[in-house]
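May I ask for a sample protein chain and its fold as tokens?
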Amino acid sequence: MLLIKQNKQIMGRKFKTNHILPTALILSCALLGSCEKNSFDPEKVKATYEDKFPVKDIDPNMNWKMTNQISVNISVYEDTGVDYSIRIYDADPLEVNSSAKVLAKGTANDKLPFTTQMDCPTALTEVYVCRTDAANRNVVKVATISSGALNVTFGTSPTTRTFTRAVNNSITTYEPERSESEVQALIPQAAVITVDDANKWEFFQSGKAYIIPEATTYKGPINKHLNDGKPATIIIAGKWIPTNMDIEKGYDVCVMNGGEISIPDNQTLSIKNNSRLFIYKGGKVSGEKIDLTNGSAGQYNYNAGTIELENLNISTPGCTFYNCGTVKVDKLNINNRGTKFVNQGKTEIEETYTQTTIENGCFLTVEKFTGLSLVLGDNCYTKIEEFNPQWDTEVSLGANTILTIEEGKFGKTRFKGTAKPSLVKIEEIKEVNQMTSEGAVYYEIKEHEGDKYKQFVKCLTNTGSTISKWGESPVVIPEGDCTGEGNNPGEGSETPSGPIPYTYVFEDNFPLVGDYDFNDVVLDVSINHDRSSDNKITTTNIDITLAAAGATKTIGAGLRLVNVDRAAIANISYEGDVNRFQNTLSGSVLANVNFEDGMVIPLFGNVHGVFGATPGTMINTGIATAPTYTYKIKIEQSNAYQRESPVISKDNLDFFIAYKFRSMQQRMEVHLYEFWDYGATKGGTVQKENLELAGNNTWAICVPNFRYPKESVNISTTDGNCAYPLFLKWAQNRTPENEDWHLHPNEKNVYR
């Protein structure tokens, strides 16, 4: 038995030698220019390959494969029971005139994540995941691929909600430290302020009450410095026009309903030390400027009435000005960290100063914000016309808050949301530099184009934040006193739907060395999957577009499915330019190919015949032009093989070209390097001995969405007079930074 087995092995080797020898001998003669010994010299053939191939010192780990399989898990925790369409793109699908291509698509809801395996270009390290609702409104997250996996979540899962402590951005509601009723109770015993009395040093005393009565106007000073102890209470029920502009230590100034302080032009009313200002509902302060320097001992100033000033200056650390009424100021000047303006009413500001901190819990508009910190509470509205804050400014966003920015500069601006949604609407991005975002912040951008927009979107990578077109975010906020008009999502829009094409380019001179322009046959192939409602794949659609023929010889092409169970395929049908492809098969080198014998699908038998061109014509490589034609293959999968991850992916598609070589009976086949180990299809040869001698040189590559070289232009040369100068660098040193060589062509030397 052992002898028989050995004989079989010997016979097998003899068959292989006889099978290879004719071509190897031809190759040896053709390359070496001599057949004197009528023998095949492997060492000389190998040396010739090494000499003639334009790529030297190829990375020993090079397999020429430019895609990977990526594990995908996309979860959506938004509206319960609502299905959302999921598309994963290679670029931003929202950008104006976007060229983004779909890598994978499916469905997700709060019970069903979209999980699958997808083909992905190796140069692609981040993708754009688009979640689309029934109204065609789109929100996009940018995410990186990490360790061969892509994990993205829209919304917050119930588990995360249970165990994650969200930041509470609700703004504190202050009650006045002295209530209006308490002050009113002092009116009967309050001394009326007159000019004569006010100028007497002994008139104002700590713990006493003083009043400007209703329907009276007092024009005079209140300026005595009081000792420590209970403050004097100044009750303004009428109108006060200050003449001495300093309120010294020891006063509580209380503006009652109907009362008013009117500050003269070009004057500043300074409230100093521990003196405080209380403006109750119906009270009013107006005029030029107030300077608050009374931040000691945690004191704060309170407004429930109306303030209309040209300048409100808060200059002492630790001071708080609280508003639950109406404030209109031309300039809010806070020049100390730790000092803040808190709004629970309606505030309109023209301009802020550099150290300004604003906490907004209701309605706020600012024409120009150049401050230090912005804290926006739950269910509030903020509009900023010109957002130009200090470097490293933090913007905290509460739940269901709206921030609208007309023009924004984001220099290390830190947006911090919570687990609940907030909305930031930006009309124009002026500058972006090291901006960050966290939490469930939905950004709506009006202009989706330009470098600054792209920089902004990049800053959202791997955050909880999303990007949308204007009016398409899902955040619903009712209108109200604090939320203005609120927010209701508008109409949706279209995003690109085409799958990413993978371009298969072939050299047709095997087993000889060709001109390395990789355009003798060019196929653009796209793969997409039909899925059922549970994301299981029912059909694989393979669209094959014949893009170019730089060859002059008659060449056919086929597709072999590798590592696919025959039982997985229920039916195969064809659409598109079927006749143009199939009519060229009769009498060709692929005429007798049968799918049941090796799972091979013949595509065409004569590349020029598909184009309807004269044999020998070079088409769409810079010589002659012709329309492209598409052959659509629809592979329906058996029920038992319908699953979330593809049974047929790019890794299973062994595209090859075939032609008659010299006097050989078998057709010569050129396959991608990654499929060399599978050998030839039935009736063909790949001349394995030649492949072994060629090392990891190649006659075919597949490049994502490739702009192939023009006729006779080498794909890469050391002098740079080529199609892709960086191809050599990638071939010789396959590192992540070299993977994008195909994105940097020499424009004059590529065809499209």
Q: What stands out?
A: Residues 2-32 form the longest helix (31 residues). The mean pLDDT is 91.
